[in-house]
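Tip: read the tokens left to right.
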């Protein structure tokens, strides 16, 4: 009997998605280093040999999960407002949108932030090279390209302080907002009242970032 190539491709994608979903569930709740590849295979209900057909190493799996997660976040952002609406925004409004997206993740998907925090630590400890991070970095490229367009427009509309170099501003904004949200989601922040909700602190962080990028422009 001839093989049904299309059916085989669909089944392969299904199993790959099962592994990514299982890995995310385990890594976001228990941490990456403490979870074995066999545990991921067991939760996904696939054999270990099958898993290694898709992901040769834990780094491969973790990077694929990160790419999948951030691609879904970006897709949901586009669904909620649309690329046309984003293109109508100026650079200042775009940063507001990004900051609010991160705050929304803290409110509704802290598991994504916990995974993201653990992901960074894991890939650094593993000595992961940039060429191994392609699946993780590719979903972020549209955001960087859009910011570049809006930064160039800001040279004319003066909605942000373009005396701050573009890459310096982009990196500081994205990493500061995300990094703070990750720490709060992880619970690794000192607080004398031991409160569990740090939404206000994230809003303060957003507002400080907005004051910084605004600079002397009004």
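Filled-in amino acids:
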């Amino acid at each position: 009997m001839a093989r049904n190539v299309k059916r085989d491709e669909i089944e392969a994608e299904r199993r790959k998605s099962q592994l990514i979903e299982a890995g995310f569930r385990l890594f976001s709740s228990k941490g990456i280093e403490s979870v074995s590849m066999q545990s991921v295979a067991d939760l996904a209900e696939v054999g270990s040999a099958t898993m290694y057909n898709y992901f040769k190493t834990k780094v491969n799996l973790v990077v694929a999960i990160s790419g999948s997660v951030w691609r879904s976040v970006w897709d949901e952002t586009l669904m909620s407002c649309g690329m046309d609406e984003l293109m109508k925004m100026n650079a200042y409004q775009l940063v507001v949108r990004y900051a609010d997206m991160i705050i929304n993740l803290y409110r509704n998907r802290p598991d994504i932030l916990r995974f993201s925090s653990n992901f960074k630590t894991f890939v650094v400890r593993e000595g992961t090279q940039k060429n191994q991070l392609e699946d993780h970095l590719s979903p972020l490229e549209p955001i960087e390209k859009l910011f570049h367009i809006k930064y160039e427009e800001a040279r004319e509309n003066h909605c942000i302080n373009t005396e701050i170099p573009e890459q310096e501003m982009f990196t500081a904004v994205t990493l500061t907002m995300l990094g703070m949200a990750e720490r709060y989601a992880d619970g690794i922040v000192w607080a004398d009242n031991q409160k569990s909700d740090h939404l206000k602190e994230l809003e303060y962080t957003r507002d400080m970032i907005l004051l910084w990028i605004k600079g002397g422009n009004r």
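The chain has a mean pLDDT of 90. The chain has eleven helices and no strands.
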